[in-house]
Amino acid sequence: MANRISFTKAALDALPVSAVGQRATFHDTKTPGLQLRLTATGVKTFSIFRRVRGGEPERVTLGRYPAMSIEQARRLAMETSAAMEGGENPAETRRAARGERTFGNLFEVYLERHAKPSKRTWREDQQRFDQYLKKPLSGKKLSMVDRQMVSAVHSAITCAGHPVVANRVLALVSSVFGWGISAGLCDNNPVRGIKRNSETSRDRFLQSSELPRFFAALAEEQDDTIRDYLLLSLLTGARRANVQAMRWVDVALERNEWRIPMTKNGTPQTVTLTPESLEILLRRQAANDAAADKRSPFVFPGPGKAGHLMEPKKGWQRILERAEVIEITNRFTQAGRYDEAVQDLRAKAAAQPGEALQALRKHAQEAGVHTGDAGLGDLRIHDLRRTLGSWQAKTGASLAIIGKSLNHKNTATTAIYARLDLDPVRESMERATSAMLTAAGVKKPAKAVTLAKTS
What we know:
CATH architecture of the largest domain: Orthogonal Bundle
CATH topology of the largest domain: hpI Integrase, Chain A
Structural class: alpha+beta
Strand content: 5-15%
């Protein structure tokens, strides 16, 4: 056989490069099947070429010289040759591995074939994948994603202070693999056996003492879409995604109703509109009609592909910052330390609440004015929905009425909800709305409104 040499460092280093477009092959005289292939660019690669027992001849690449030493190549060649003699085909195994799906590939298929057609919350799946799973798991072959790897992701999110989010991400991974198994795209679910974090039901809502600064902060919001969206979220108690995608075609102003075709729990919902809600919608409808060729089918239009408001986080942050500025300003007044600097920062908060808040905190520290618990704490947009239900309870509404108002899906009370008329729901929501606005100081107390004493 031509080009048979004893592989030594001196011999391999001295090999001349091949002509352009050609590749030379050299065979080791000491190890059967071991070859070194040399390209025109000088790249030298070890491989073994032999017939698989009961099959066809296969070439298996071992590694490049000199990164792989001659001794390593000979040892690996003998191991590979033994495996091929036993009927194994390392080349076929590598080809299969190269063609195996990654977790990122599986998620894409899951999103298009399952989540988008059947889940209203598919955008949340996409966001969680992008934020928490893309970097650690997206490029991993499915056979490489094991329980330890997924558990590490869950632990990292938990240690970052987001135990509930960690559970949701874990549930997403489980759903992706579970669907993949049913679709014949993978064989096992690595989430099985991973313990979830314990969760405590959230009961946060706006208290009587917090409502005045919240409404004051909301009134100063310069983005009327954000302002009206948050206020309508509070007054209707509807889920944030439903309010964001609210369409004019689903609003019946003459009946004071908003029909949500499909909610998160898989059922439609008719939301009664209080006079305060109607006022917002009438104003927005007039502005939309005046827009002529720029009219939007959505109550809260947005610049993205969806056409409606999608992510109001920045606007929500402005509200929270402005509310804290208002409370700290009140504390300066109560301490008798209200000065021109406070006045200027209070005015600045309308347009630049973040900067005003930082400066006001510093000024308060220097002046000895307490700022602890001045903010609205961990208040979230979803807590506005809970706020309406809580104030309905405060004003004497039954659990059945509250469930009907908020479209809760509860098997124990479904029959009762189905028999309820919208009139008592409307009355309860108007009572709760009136009580909230009164507590906020933006509406005079009505004789019919009686607030339960808060503990």
